[in-house]
Amino acid sequence: MNWDANRPFPIPVIAESTGNDSQHRGDTDEPWYAEPEEPIQGVDDVILVASGKGGVGKSTVTVNLACALRRQGMRVGILDADLYGPSITRMLGVNVGLDRDDNGMTLPAENHDIYAVSIANVVPPEAALSWKGPLVAQTLVQMFREVVWPDLDILLVDLPPGTGDVQLTILEQVPVSGVVIVTTPQQLALVDAERGIALFHELDIPVFGIIENMDRYVCPCCGEEQALFPVGGAKSLASRKHVAYLGGIPLDPAGQDAADRGQPLVISNDQGKAATAFTNLAGQVAKAVERERLYRERDADTSLREDHEAFWERLLD
Amino acid sequence: MSMNQATMDSTELENAVMSVLQTVSDRPDGPDIVSTGQVFDVVATDGAVRVLLDQERINEQDQQTLAEFITPLVESVPGVQRAVIKPRPRSVALRQKLPGIAHVVGVHSGKGGVGKSTVAVNLAVTLAAKGLKVGLLDADVYGPSVPTLLGKSGRASTTDDGDRVQPFIAHGVKFMSLGLLLPAGQALMWRGSLVDQGLPQLFTDVDWGELDLLLIDLPPGTSDVHLASARQVALSGIITVTAPGQVSIDDVRRGMEMFADLAVPCLGVVENMAGVSCRQCGHIGSVFGEGGGVQLTEQMGIPLLASIPFEPDVAHHSDKGVPLVSVSQDTLFTRLYSNIAAQLTLLLGLPRTQGAEDASLTN
Predict the structure, then answer these.
(1) Is the CB of residue A260 less than 8 Å away from at least one CB of chain B?
(2) CATH T-level assignment (fold) for domain A34-316
(3) What is the value of ipTM here, to two decimals?
(4) Do A311 and A303 meet the contact criterion of CB atoms below 8 Å apart?
(5) Residue closest to A5 by CA, chosen among B81, B257, B20, B87
(6) A3 in reach of chain B (CB within 8 A)
(7) Do B121 and B45 share a structural domain?
(8) What does the pLDDT look like over B17-27, one tens digit per residue?
(9) Judged by CB atoms within 8 Å, which residues 236-295 of B form the interface with A?
(10) Closest residue of B to A228, CA-based?
């Protein structure tokens, strides 16, 4: 890894949390959740990639989805919000330090025409921080708002597993257009995915749907497809929670190697079954984003709302 | 071979850095910062060098200045790719022991989904089958998996005297999980500060009784939960679980580094999910990468406790709540776990049962 210590991110490597714990809304009776209003400069839609359980392939899905969306003509960025186990730099092949512009704002790294920022660009593994809550919040806000994002249609946010500080901070601080949930077919992962969906529903964040990763294994030798895990769980979770099932992604043994080399499957093996699955997925996500934009415009269009109100008034008269 | 090579190079690099630091002094004609003990140690892995400072021997206002001064010096030593200046490892544990519990060991990985819980559960069941008194604490507050893996659900109950939580027992293992204290399907939104309040109760308010070993299934990453766990009790060590791919290794190194900073030793590495064999042609595909576990142990000089293949049966049994080691006998899978158990017994000096000795002979 080409770590350049001369290009510090605006957070110190040896950092102690200085925040006041009473700022943690969990400690007070006030409702902690308020709709964030300030948009992210340069970004049209912020989409979260979430899962309850770890290791189900959030980062792999994020990187490949980004590349597939790019191929469909969208301008895409990735924010690696997994402060605890950042993977995006390696998977996208952007193991570099970050530059800053004249105003001290951080410039994102770029590869495969995808712009990305990750904590791994900034803090070398030897510095291993354990992330206390206030430091998490401060760092995330910097990653969203002190980075010069080029004009992006979509900023994908790769979340850490679970429903902890990172998730809560982002939902508090950043306007989110929607979320896709990644799971594997195991019961173990589905239970945690359900907890995740419950959180987003509770906060009124649109859940675009569930992606079932590793739904089958394709032998690289003979092409035989076999299920590694019991099947059907993700579809039934989707129908139970009234969210879309966006499709399954097969486990491709070439995927790990591709990820280790920073060459996502969508690029390195664009005719493969996994790449095809990601392409379909990107189409669905693009549609969901479009739909969400229409809703937003309709809500923003006051004349429409007035018409709507007038209609109800007439009806009531 | 390559391990010796790597160790040699690291030692040379450490010595070279040390001799540069011996030329630095914090006042004119004063003793150098190494002989004053201000530099506690230098640790190198590959080209990455950590200079560990003893904070107690350096004035607080001088620490940043000293770090800024020695960073370029260390980086100018040939072979150094990057330098990190940080405080010497220091335990944050509030107590040495939990009453009645001989050893507490964390099962950890930097990356999620590499099989921490599966390893923790199967290891606990293996140790219990050898006659040890084993407890398992599921500290994954955001995605508790142990109840599913051990096939128990429902709500935890209190003890007869009413002021402690009764652990569940399955396959000879006493266990407790946050999953048993919460309604299913409800998201747990724990701020770090709540973790600090809630987690201690899992350590102190559960009626564990006498235990030879308490395993803690930690969440992935390097978060509040890890710090809070290390604070609750002086851990005898951690077992690091990793998948063989580079992406997992990257994250795992961050996790190991954090525990090293907290003066918690790493007892060994378990490499999980190495290879799937095709049912049609028998071809073995390395689905989650190759060789990472060996690479990690060579870099860090830590034993590889096992390399466990990906076994679709594991997932099927896990979903049913039956740990695979409890149903299969003398398969590669059970032998690997017996082996880990035997090594752990030796490392920690656990009571040696007949079963444990058998396993160490097969090693």
Answers:
(1) yes
(2) Rossmann fold (3.40.50)
(3) 0.76
(4) no
(5) B81
(6) yes
(7) no
(8) 999 999 998 88
(9) 243, 245-247, 250-251, 253-258, 260-261, 276, 278-281, 283, 285-289
(10) B312
